[in-house]
Design brief:
Helices cover 38% and strands 18% of the residues. It folds into two domains: 109 residues, Four Helix Bundle (Hemerythrin (Met), subunit A) (Up-down Bundle); 190 residues, Translation initiation factor eif-2b, domain 2 (Rossmann fold). It is α/β, with parallel strands linked by helices and 321 residues long. It starts with a strand and ends with a strand. It has ten helices and 16 strands. The chain has a seven-stranded mixed β-sheet, sandwiched between helices. The chain is globular. Bound molecules: 5-S-methyl-1-O-phosphono-5-thio-D-ribulose. 5-S-methyl-1-O-phosphono-5-thio-D-ribulose binds next to helix 2 and strand 9. The site of 5-S-methyl-1-O-phosphono-5-thio-D-ribulose has 18 residues, from helix 2 and strand 9. It catalyses: 5-(methylsulfanyl)-alpha-D-ribose 1-phosphate = 5-(methylsulfanyl)-D-ribulose 1-phosphate. Pathway: Amino-acid biosynthesis; L-methionine biosynthesis via salvage pathway; L-methionine from S-methyl-5-thio-alpha-D-ribose 1-phosphate: step 1/6. This is Methylthioribose-1-phosphate isomerase.
């Protein structure tokens, strides 16, 4: 599959994640404003992919001229929770004094690194999962999309599935649909189907019941920001999954490149959680599903305390808080 986000010599190219699975289409983003719009609409999403987006945002800003740092700052603030976005911006900005070509080279090296680091992190995690679970083949549970589409290539938590599937060790994956924007049923299920991995989509509310029935060997999730103490911000619903997993003695493994670790934050209490538009819950596929103007609580992420997480795994192996 082509990279989720890339540079074609003149523009940022992305696989439009608002269109999948109905349509596979590529968008070309030529300006900082177009990139910010794509980030906020989740046309490009997922923490590692946002790292690439941040760096390429600085490339677009250098080409446009004007106040590059102010434009870069707007890119960094397009979404607040995934630290990778501001990390990618900061890495590219470090090269600003060396000129536009140096900024581009840095952005391209972030894209190249991403696949390598995600392959390594998910490879370590696959070995850890095999050590934690006795059953073969494995029945895994995935929340949101932490696959190829959430990274530049390969995936983090879903990368574990790719490693294990290559060895014939995956029976099936239960895919949380991931309300309200359905990153699970639209994107993760699409990726699993492409790869020929057996899967079943379930409503998020079914996850605890699946664990109670004993059909989940391990929960695999990605991360948007990991605090120094090992608390993990990830897609809304991860915290509830972790509570259910602990109750049912099911391991929960978090997989992320080390760029997702934010050592400047002592704990998850300090992580800014994005609140998204009420419309995402008031309507579905253009049809109103609440009373008009219903009040809405729509956090995009939650924080799972470190003590509910079996392991956080990066390209360096198990992360020690
Ligand atoms: O709102 P999204 O779709 O960007 O949220 C993405 C997630 O929460 C992912 O689990 C996380 O970014 C890790 S992706 C490898």
């Amino acid at each position: 599959m082509r990279r989720t986000i890339d540079w074609d010599g003149d523009a940022v190219t992305i696989i439009d994640q608002t269109a999948l699975p109905a349509e596979y289409r590529i968008l070309r983003l030529r300006t900082v404003d177009e990139l910010i719009d794509a980030i906020t609409r989740l046309a490009v999403r997922g923490a590692p992919a946002l790292g690439g987006a941040g760096a390429l945002g600085v490339v677009l800003a250098t080409r446009a001229g004007g106040d590059v740092r102010a434009s870069a700052d707007r890119v960094a603030q397009a979404r607040p929770t995934a630290v990778n976005l501001s990390w990618g911006v900061a890495r590219a900005l470090e090269k600003l004094d060396e000129g536009a070509e140096a900024v581009l080279a840095e952005a391209l090296s972030i894209l190249d690194e991403d696949e390598r680091l995600n392959r390594a992190a998910s490879g370590h995690a696959a070995e850890i999962v095999l050590g934690l679970c006795d059953r073969r083949p494995l029945r895994l549970l995935s929340h949101c999309n932490a696959g190829h589409l959430a990274t530049v290539a390969w995936g983090s938590a879903l990368g574990v599935v790719w490693h294990l599937h290559q060895r014939g060790l995956v029976e099936s994956v239960l895919v949380d649909e991931t309300r309200p924007l359905l990153q699970g049923s639209r994107l993760t299920a699409w990726e699993l189907a492409q790869a020929g991995v057996p899967y079943r989509v379930q409503p998020d509310g079914a996850a605890a019941a699946a664990m109670a029935r004993g059909v989940v060997d391990c929960v695999l999730v990605g991360a948007d920001r990991i605090a120094a103490n090992g608390d993990v911000a990830n897609k809304i619903g991860t915290y509830g999954l972790a509570i259910a997993a602990r109750h049912h003695h099911v391991p929960l493994v978090v997989v992320a490149p080390s760029s997702t670790i934010d050592k400047s934050l002592a704990s998850g209490a300090d992580i800014a959680i994005e609140e998204r538009a009420p419309e995402e819950l008031r309507s579905y596929a253009g049809v109103t599903i609440t009373p008009p103007g219903a009040d809405v609580f729509n956090p995009a992420f939650d924080v799972t305390p470190a003590q509910l997480i079996t392991a956080v795994v990066t390209e360096h192996g198990r992360f020690s808080p």
